[in-house]
Amino acid sequence: GQTLTHSFTIENNTDTDWTIKRIVTNCSCTIAQPQSNVLSRHSAQSIEVTYKAPVDFADDRRVVTVLFDEDESPEYELLVTAQVRRPLSIKKRNLHFAGLPIGMAKTQEIEVENYSNDAWDCLNVEHNQKWVTTKVESIGTLNGIQTWRVIVTANAEQLSAGNHATTLRVSAVPLSQQFVSEIPIVATVVTDVVITPSELFFGRISTNAETSRTVLVRWQSSEPPPERRELEVICSDDPQPTTVLEEMRSGVWRLTTTLAGVEGQRKIAGTISLRNKASGEIIAAVPFAAETIE
């Protein structure tokens, strides 16, 4: 939003006077005012150009064109360039951690520059979500500008699939309202596996009777899917249901679960998980529930 003025000099080295026909600007942010509407022969005059900076980050370039009535006169192009920055300047408008797998973490970096008239001791970086961690490193002075690197990590270990949002607040020390900037952060958490349906409900089962249910497990990670022999089915609680895992095609399995009613145990519940034998990683889990009737 700051307004600055610069004086350009144009010359007429011919034997003819030139009359300014019009001055063309390619933006309302620039205003040009000539010293006179006539540029006399073998003379020079100044043209003051006033530029109003935008309110946000920009590397701006504007052209002011001076046109004369005379056919033999040239066109003068006055070039205005501006590096527009906030006192606390951050080039990135937001951080998006796209395609973040559940249980994994990703890191991005932002650079913070000090364009104010004051030297800063350090930066404060604040947020209100446990899945975000930050680290501030001083880069020093680059081209006369104090610069810091902020390393932002999004950790999806405790996050569910979907979008999770917060705001990163960066402020200078000593604290001042004009030296504060906020950056939205979005983490799009995805799961490597989709289970359909997402839970198993067996309904009412008579004592010692058996009921079966089936789910489809689909691998959707960009990484190659494991083979059937690399997987095992485990159950978290008693009673232990009977399970059969069949590979339909690469990355697609059918899990059939058979559960029997238990005498004296009215409600039955637990979780069936698919585990990678080598790593011990649980790649999928589906809850189940049933009710025993006499």
Describe this structure in words.
Strands 4-2-6-7 form a 4-stranded antiparallel β-sheet, with no helix packed on it. It has a 4-stranded antiparallel β-sheet with strand order 8-10-13-12, with no helix packed on it. Strands 9-15-14-11 form a 4-stranded mixed β-sheet, with no helix packed on it. It starts with a strand and ends with a strand. It has strands spanning about 5-10, 20-25, 30-35, 40, 45-50, 60-70, 75-85, 90, 95-100, 105-115, 120-125, 130-140, 145-155, 160-175, 180-190, 195, 200-205, 210-220, 230-235, 240-250, 250-260, 265-275, 280-294. A hairpin with a 2-residue loop joins strand 12 and strand 13. The chain has no helices and 23 strands.
What characterizes the major β-sheet?
Answer: 4 strands, antiparallel
Poorly predicted ranges: none
The termini sit apart by 79 Å
Give me the secondary-structure category. mainly beta
* Radius of gyration over C-alpha positions, nearest whole angstrom: 34 Å
**In sequence order, what are the helices and strands, one letter per element?**
EEEEEEEEEEEEEEEEEEEEEEE
Mean pLDDT: 87
* Order of strands across the main sheet: 4-2-6-7
Helix content: under 10%
User: What is the overall number of helices?
Assistant: 0
Strand content: over 45%
Number of strands: 23
- What overall geometry do the principal axes of the alpha carbons give? elongated
What tags apply to this protein structure?
294 residues; mainly beta; single chain; 4-stranded antiparallel β-sheet; 0% helix
